[in-house]
């Protein structure tokens, strides 16, 4: 007798195979049978008529590194149908570290991803420590982690803008090898975030050779996604060519009106590199606004040495610094297009307003307003940049080598501020946009958030509905699924996601979370 039978649904198996009506049977943590037998029996029958049965969605790009380390409720990914998230992106991770720099790493992580981690145990230095602590906190969904290059670099070199010595580079390579050997899936670069942005070609190539030797992946937040995006892609293609590593470009996009309409040129450049033998994949999120810290407006040279030195430089109001901030703000759409989502309690009266509005309140220039906010908040400010074109977003979305990653965080719904809606609605919104714009067949859309993602991160037993695969499964209504989160009020559950199974156990039934927590930290099998 099967434990669960998901009966009479439309099976979309994650391989691009056309949908078919069938029942999916679960025993233990595995898919035991997929059958059209109308009399199939199980201990628990769940009627899935009129709904899609698909593999659990895989979010290739999140920043939920701290979630497995504390007892806080993390549920926004589950309600989207996500059963696995990949953390440690954009060059930012909690490991590696050591006793001498643990507090610096903690501050770097918290400030860069704008998430408070005060209640999180950070007595960790490596993958072994991470796994040990994570195993004590039951998870609703699975997580896999990358090693952030910025964290790795900070652990060895600190936050200085310089190249590593040969000895330091060897130490970075050895540390990376150890973390990959112990289960990390690869390394991420965050080339707009110091100290990862201080890295150069040789450093990236040498580290990528270590990743390649361990059958891992190199992900990258490009050095530019605006006026120099083409050159930024060229830089990473060079790394892939010289090292042979699997390169994955995170949240592919074009920021700022001067770049709008150039998405096909960018896609053609990537495809040409593939034709030359490079293994390149990408992901994107389905929104026209981006989100990162307000400090992204501050040039890298002014962040040399870390947050405290950046704040001291901001107070000097150096003319070069003012000009660079103004230029970056203009590239991102100008002061009307830069919104403050949260000052994390420092200046709550400006939360939800854009820089133009705040400038009028302060009677300051937009640049001086940015500097004032950063100084008052010690650099920890979450911002939203309304700077993307829907035409480009949809054009990128149609590509079958491009998966979906939220670039979000696994929140609870009791937040007192409004982070980017992608934390709550990325996957429903993707399916909604596919439906409303008739972008592709349903089986292709499901493939992009399941089978393709599993291939990219190298998970042979997930992402596809087939016998003996792990029973990570999502059941949704394609005609109904919709993102309900907004920029004004983002902590809202989507609609249309009905049932989610993690390792064969229901984590969500009829849109309501259960008490079951069968997720775990997945380790790469080298």
From TrEMBL:
Keywords: Hydrolase
Domain Amidohydrolase: start-end pairs: 416-505
A GO cellular component entry from the record: cytosol
Any one GO molecular-function label of the UniProt entry: hydrolase activity, acting on carbon-nitrogen (but not peptide) bonds, in cyclic amides
EC number: 3.5.1.81
Record Gene3D superfamilies: D-aminoacylase. Domain 3, Metal-dependent hydrolases, Urease, subunit C, domain 1
Enzyme's top EC category: hydrolase
Protein name, as recorded: D-aminoacylase
Gene that produces this protein: dan
């Amino acid at each position: 007798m099967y434990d669960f039978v998901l009966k009479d649904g439309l099976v979309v198996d994650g391989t691009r195979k056309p949908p078919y009506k069938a029942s999916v049977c679960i025993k233990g943590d595995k898919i035991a049978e997929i059958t059209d037998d109308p009399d199939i029996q199980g201990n628990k029958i769940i009627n899935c008529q009129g709904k899609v049965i698909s593999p659990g969605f895989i979010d290739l790009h999140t920043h939920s590194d701290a979630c497995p380390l504390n007892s806080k409720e993390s549920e926004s990914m589950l309600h989207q149908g996500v059963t696995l998230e990949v953390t440690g992106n954009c060059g930012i991770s909690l490991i590696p570290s050591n006793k001498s720099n643990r507090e610096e790493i903690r501050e770097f992580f918290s400030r860069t991803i704008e998430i408070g981690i005060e209640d999180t145990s950070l007595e960790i230095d490596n993958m072994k420590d991470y796994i040990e602590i994570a195993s004590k906190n039951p998870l609703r969904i699975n997580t896999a982690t990358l090693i952030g290059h910025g964290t790795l670099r900070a652990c060895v070199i600190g936050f200085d803008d310089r190249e590593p010595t040969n000895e330091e580079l060897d130490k970075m390579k050895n540390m990376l090898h150890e973390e990959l050997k112990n289960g990390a899936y690869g390394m991420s670069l965050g080339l707009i975030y110091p100290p990862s942005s201080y890295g150069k070609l040789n450093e990236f190539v040498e580290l990528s050779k270590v990743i390649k030797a361990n059958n891992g992946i190199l992900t990258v937040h490009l050095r530019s996604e605006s006026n120099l995006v083409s050159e930024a892609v060229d830089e990473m293609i060079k790394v892939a060519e010289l090292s042979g590593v699997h390169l994955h470009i995170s949240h592919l996009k074009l920021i700022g009106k001067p770049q709008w309409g150039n998405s096909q040129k960018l896609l053609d450049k990537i495809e040409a590199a593939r034709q030359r033998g490079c293994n390149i994949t990408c992901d994107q999120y389905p929104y026209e606004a981006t989100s990162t810290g307000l400090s992204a407006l501050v040039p890298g040279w002014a962040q040399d040495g870390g947050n405290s030195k950046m704040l001291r430089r901001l107070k000097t109001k150096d003319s070069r610094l003012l000009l660079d901030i103004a230029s970056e703000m203009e590239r991102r759409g100008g002061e009307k297009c830069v919104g403050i989502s949260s000052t994390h309690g420092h200046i709550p009266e400006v939360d939800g307003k854009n820089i133009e509005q705040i400038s009028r309140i302060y009677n300051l220039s937009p640049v001086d307003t940015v500097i004032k906010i950063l100084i008052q908040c010690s650099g920890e400010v979450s911002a939203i940049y309304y700077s993307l074109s829907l035409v480009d977003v949809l054009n990128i979305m149609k590509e079958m080598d491009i998966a979906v990653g939220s670039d979000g965080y696994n929140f609870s719904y009791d937040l007192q501020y409004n982070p980017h809606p992608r934390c709550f609605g990325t996957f429903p919104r993707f399916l909604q946009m596919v439906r409303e714009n008739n972008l592709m067949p349903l089986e292709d859309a499901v493939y992009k958030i399941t089978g393709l993602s599993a291939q990219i991160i190298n998970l042979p037993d997930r992402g596809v509905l087939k016998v003996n695969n792990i029973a990570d499964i999502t059941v949704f209504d394609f005609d109904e699924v919709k993102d309900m989160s907004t920029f004004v009020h983002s902590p809202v559950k989507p609609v249309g996601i009905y049932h989610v199974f993690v390792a064969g156990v229901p984590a969500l039934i009829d849109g309501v979370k259960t008490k079951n927590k069968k997720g775990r930290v997945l380790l790469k099998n080298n």
